[in-house]
Fold this sequence. Notes:
Elements: H1 3-11, H2 36-50, E1 53-63, E2 69-80, E3 84-91, E4 95-100, E5 103-108, E6 113-118, H3 126-131, E7 140-148, E8 151-158, E9 165-173, E10 176-184, E11 189-199, E12 217-220
Parallel strand pairs: 6-12
Antiparallel strand pairs: 1-2, 1-11, 2-3, 3-4, 4-5, 5-6, 7-8, 8-9, 9-10, 10-11
Amino acid sequence: MDSGKFWRRRLRSPISLALLFCVVAAQCASAQPAGDAQAGLATLEAFLDGVQSLTADFKQQIWSADQQLQQTETGTLSLKRPNRFRWTYVEPTQLIVVADGSQLSIYDVELEQVTVAPFDSVGASPAMLLSGDRNVREQFEVVDTYPADGLSWVKLQPLGGGSDFTSILIGFDGTAPRRLELVDGLNGVTRIELDNLDVNPELADDVFKLEVPAGVNVLGEG
């Protein structure tokens, strides 16, 4: 699955789960999680409270259920809560995904085409998990936490329907997210590693506006 398909599939999702750091669902889990899940909830709360913006380089890999590497992509990202993000895929394809809080724009450089959709059409994605507002926690349940590879891992499961993923793992270094692993219904895994993180930088709102070059076709709502 290339990055274009990854994002466009979310435009076809019927409703947003609204995304990267989320905590246990308040409306569906009246009791607090116990043991390891409670520790994971605390880790996510620390992220939500402490990280309002972030920039990083990323490497995204798609693995099949039998652990065969399907694709590797690299790029940069900028996130600003609430609900603003910019993912720029550089290699091997050029794709820019921008959300300004009201709409999502996907610019396929090779196709010279921009697809625009309302922000609430975005499905559960790494960008939304990282940049969503605190209501994002009402869409996920924390089910486990454990240390591995020098990180504190938190495992989440989406509540209700509409998600492309059956579980999401987030590896934290303190309050900073370093790795994500998203497992789909066929046990395929999308792994995203973040490097060169800058936590809470000053980011102008213009960062989350897509300037469409002349001659580029725009589809959808503008």
